[in-house]
Amino acid sequence: MLSKKLTVVNPSGLHLRPAGVLSQTAMKFKCDVIIECGEKKIAAKSVLNVMAAGIKTGTEINLICDGEDEAAAMETLSQAIKSGLGEM
């Protein structure tokens, strides 16, 4: 299991478009991908769960990847989040 603290940099947080990009990217991997935001644990492969979490810009999250391709998933998803999920 790998975990990494990241800050959401999207200007309007994880609304539909960036949540969709994040979920579609997470679905490419076999491992479980969880986003911890405060007390919430969100399954990153579900666009509805990611959107419903209401994660705003500047929010610190903990990205957790657990499974056979966790290292590749962590690298890819970390870069996607740092680069603004296609919005910057």
Textual characterization of the structure:
The chain is 35% helix and 26% strand. It is of the alpha+beta class. The protein has a single domain (2-82), classed as Histidine-containing Protein, Chain: A (2-Layer Sandwich), CATH 3.30.1340. A four-stranded antiparallel sheet has the order 1-4-2-3, with helices on one face. The longest helix has 13 residues, at 70-82. It has helices at residues 16-27, 47-52, 70-82, and strands at 2-7, 32-37, 40-43, 60-66. Residues 1-88 form the HPr domain. Pfam families: PTS-HPr (PF00381). Keywords: Cytoplasm, Phosphotransferase system.
Offer a few descriptive terms.
alpha+beta; HPr-like_sf; 4-stranded antiparallel beta sheet; HPr family phosphocarrier protein; HPr-like; 88 residues; Histidine-containing Protein, Chain: A; 4 strands; phosphotransferase system
Briefly note the structural class of the backbone.
alpha+beta
CATH architecture: 2-Layer Sandwich
CATH level 1 name: Alpha Beta
Strand order, largest beta sheet = 1-4-2-3
Mean pLDDT figure: 95
Shape: globular
Subcellular location: Cytoplasm
Pfam families: PTS-HPr
InterPro entries: HPr, HPr-like, HPr-like_sf
Protein name: HPr family phosphocarrier protein
Write the layout of secondary structure elements.
Elements: E1 2-7, H1 16-27, E2 32-37, E3 40-43, H2 47-52, E4 60-66, H3 70-82
Please give a quick description of this structure:
This protein is an alpha+beta fold and 88 residues long. It contains three helices and four strands, in the order βαββαβα.
